[in-house]
Write a structure and sequence with these properties.
Layout (H helix, E strand, L loop, with lengths): L2 E6 L6 E7 L2 H20 L2 H17 L1 H12 L3 H24 L4 E3 L6 E9 L2 E5 L5 H6 L2 H7 L2 E5 L8 H9 L2 H4 L2 E3 L4 H8 L4 E5 L2 H14 L3 E4 L4 E5 L5 H13 L9 E7 L3 H14 L18 H16 L3 E4 L4 E3 L2 E3 L3 E4 L6 H4 L6 E7 L2 H9 L6 E5 L3 H8 L6 E4 L21 E2 L7 H4 L2 E9 L15 H4 L1
Parallel strand pairs: 5-6, 5-8, 6-7, 8-9, 10-11, 10-17, 11-16, 15-16, 17-18
Antiparallel strand pairs: 1-2, 3-4, 4-20, 9-19, 12-15, 13-14
Helix pairs in contact: 2-4, 2-6, 3-4, 4-6, 11-12
The chain binds nicotinamide-adenine-dinucleotide (NAD).
Nicotinamide-adenine-dinucleotide (NAD) binds next to helix 9 and helix 10.
């Protein structure tokens, strides 16, 4: 391992940047350094960590321009790049606000014996390892590390080798906060670097594809460390016969085409009642054709390039497979090469079935395959016919009807009367992925912070200890201890 990795620019296709993958020994050394500083970090009062983290948020805000520029080259898109520094700084400030209440340990008395009292103690895992993907480079590198650092862990983060330009400006922000610099490190490298990192951490947060997640999960099990896996999706949306068609079309296009469909919770399957199928598809096509590629000026228009050239080939493969098996292409569908980058206009397919890759495998592109259903039970069956289960959406005639359908879907988050609403509740509610979309619990809501703590209990007996001779034959713990 170790060596130089060439990085392609998504808008030109040229390899115009390079990183060095850390060697095994370098990773080990970095982990040892972070681990060494962690005991002081976790022993400090929470208010100290909160103060340090808030200073980091301020540095991110100050360095917003450099971060945005780097992220824009990494991803080929402007608007999402420009939002990312504010989103990360906002997440840091939000966790700082919530942490004191969440980290207040419970205490009380035994419900079996009031003479016995207990006090919970939370003990942070020493070193968190983060391995993150290319589709939202900064946000997904930080989303788990921020609550972990507040909890008292140190963190080593290995972002994707596909989008590493943002790492340098992030390091600049960390260097401005020396207390944080001692316990947080961004390292460069590829899959091998990620694999090596697993051997040296105490807790792992991985965001990426299901196949890599499986390998990472097995490696973590081998090390006997907890692994939180946030993986791919194939999110369905159900549109019932009484739904407002314009509302549905607006929500679905945004949910499927935003970020060129390169979001884990993108809408990737559309199930529409047969009574409105044709009208719905006509409107969907009409609205899809109104959108424009943000080329040549990345700061204008709607749709960026594929971040990762190989992804364009996967998306094209899904469309080809569907067409070969009898689907109809209503709009889009072609990989365009513009200025050296790979692009695709919003794509609508009809006549699709669950025998086609586009309905069962993660596409990760701006593709909307539409299938009709005869009744709501049929729709629920189709939506649940998947090995994924990240999120889902329902748009019906009324909110109540949509909520009833939503409760029957096997997914961690269901958007009702809209799509992709998960982002709005990141600090408020809990969600766990179903099936192979993830493993290990919620990365949002208060348990997202508590998961980085080992739960220890201090139990004290205020009365005399029970003599062994006084124990009954049939020991009943509630009475005897
Ligand atoms: P990927 O699985 O190819 O790579 C993710 C990361 O894992 C990269 O940093 C990579 O270098 C590293 N890696 C590769 N092989 C490894 C190994 N053997 N051991 C350790 N690390 C290894 O994923 P990707 O293509 O970068 O990202 C796209 C995928 O991420 C999609 O499937 C998408 O749905 C998923 N994703 C999920 C979420 C979520 O929250 N559920 C969010 C964003 C993206």
């Amino acid at each position: 391992m170790s060596g130089t990795i060439q990085v392609q620019n998504p808008r030109t296709g040229e390899a115009d940047y390079q990183i060095t993958a850390l060697s095994d020994a370098e990773i080990e050394m970095e982990c040892r350094k972070l681990r060494g500083a962690q005991s002081e970090w976790s022993a400090a009062p929470l208010v100290h960590r909160i103060d340090v983290m808030k200073r980091w948020a301020d540095e991110i805000t100050k360095n917003k321009e450099a971060l945005t520029k780097a992220l824009a080259v990494d991803t080929g898109r402007w608007r999402l790049a420009a939002e990312a520094p504010d989103n990360v700084a906002g997440a840091i400030r939000g966790w700082c606000e919530m942490a004191p209440e969440i980290l207040q340990p419970d205490q009380g008395r035994s419900s079996f014996n009031p003479e016995i009292q207990f006090r919970q103690q939370y003990v942070a895992y020493p070193l968190l390892g983060v391995i993150s993907p290319w589709n939202m480079p900064f946000l997904l590198s930080a989303i788990d590390a921020v609550p972990a650092l507040i909890a008292g862990c140190a963190a080593i983060i290995k972002p994707s080798e596909v989008t590493p330009r943002f790492i340098e400006p992030v390091r600049e922000t960390i260097a401005k906060v020396p207390e944080l610099d001692a316990v947080l490190s961004y390292v460069t490298g590829d899959g091998e670097t990620g694999a090596a990192l697993i051997d040296h951490v105490d807790f792992l947060c991985f965001t990426g594809s299901v196949p890599t997640g499986r390998k990472v999960g097995m490696a973590a099990a081998d090390q006997f460390i907890p692994a939180f896996l946030e993986l791919g999706g194939k999110d369905p949306v159900i549109v019932t016969r009484d739904a407002d068609i314009d509302r549905a079309v607006t929500a679905i296009i945004r949910g499927a085409v935003w970020a060129t469909g390169q979001l884990c919770f993108s809408i990737e399957r559309v199930y529409v009642d047969e009574a409105i199928h044709d009208v719905f598809v006509d409107r969907l096509v009409e609205k899809a054709e109104e959108l424009e590629l943000s080329y040549p000026d990345m700061r204008t228009k709607d749709i960026g390039p594929f971040i990762f050239g190989k992804q364009a080939a996967i998306v094209a493969g899904h469309i080809e497979d569907a067409l070969a098996k009898g689907a109809t292409l209503r709009t889009g569908g072609e990989v365009l090469t513009l200025g050296g980058g790979k692009w695709m206009r919003p794509t609508v397919l009809t006549g699709v079935t669950h025998d086609m890759k586009v309905m069962v495998d993660e596409t990760f592109g701006p593709v909307m395959p539409v299938m009709s259903f005869s009744d709501v039970d049929d729709a629920v069956r189709l939506a649940n016919d998947t090995r994924f289960g990240l999120s889902a959406a329902v748009i019906a005639g009324t909110r109540e009807e949509a909520e009833v359908i939503g409760t029957q879907l096997n997914a961690g988050a269901v958007s009702v009367m809209d799509t992709t609403l998960t982002n709005a509740i990141l600090r408020d509610a809990e969600k766990t992925a179903f099936n192979c979309s993830g493993l290990g619990g919620s990365r949002i809501g208060k348990t997202a912070l508590l998961r980085f703590m080992r739960k220890k209990v201090i139990v004290t007996n205020n009365a005399d200890p029970t003599d062994i001779k006084d124990l009954a034959e049939d020991v009943v713990p509630s009475r005897s201890f």
